[in-house]
Amino acid sequence: GQLESPETFLNAVERLYQSPESSEDEITFRDGRVFKRRSVALESGASGSSRIWIFSDFTEAWGARIDPLTGLLNRRAYGREIPGFMASDHSAQIKAFALIDVDHFKAFNDRYGHAGGDAVLEQVGVILDKGANLALHKAFRIGGEEFAIASVHPDYEAALQYHQQIVGSIQQAGIAHAGNRPHGVVTISIGLGLFSGPGE
Predict the structure, then answer these.
(1) pLDDT tens-digit profile of 94-122?
(2) Does the active-site annotation cover 26?
(3) What is the pTM of this model?
(4) 145, 146, 157, 200: which is the annotated catalytic residue?
(5) Nearest Cα residue to 105 out of 94, 118, 89
(6) Which 3 state secondary structure label does DSSP give 52?
(7) Other C-beta atoms within 10 Å of 177: how many?
């Protein structure tokens, strides 16, 4: 009951006890802790096999992957995870990689101050994080007002609509930005690449 997803935890246990395979993954707790879970099958004669389980609390190390202002994954996590995402094979689906920039952000800071700029980045982070309703979606803050999203979609149209909704959500938030004409509110620009298969 302390876990964010008890069913996933129990399903993995049941599946692994029927298998000789080793396993390594992460489990998250409702209180924010993150544990690494490792499991290795051990031969135990005619009675079948048994397992050894190792649980390691790496909450602090996990926190080093999080941008403290926005709560998104940081540049360090981006550098480690994007190569694997690009190499992954989702041949029946469409992979999307988006680079995002807050429009005229320097002008915003000059007019409203850096505290106001931080508040904007925090709000943008919340909106990008809400986009994580996909099973395969990761949002990163990679520096300053620059963000990235890696996600997987059923087809090209769904991928385009998904990113158009993000652009619309930022604009509809109505954050005043007099230096961003003609909109008058904070907007973002997205560079989007859509592809299938490993790095195609």
Answers:
(1) 999 999 999 999 999 999 999 999 999 99
(2) no
(3) 0.68
(4) 145
(5) 118
(6) strand
(7) 22
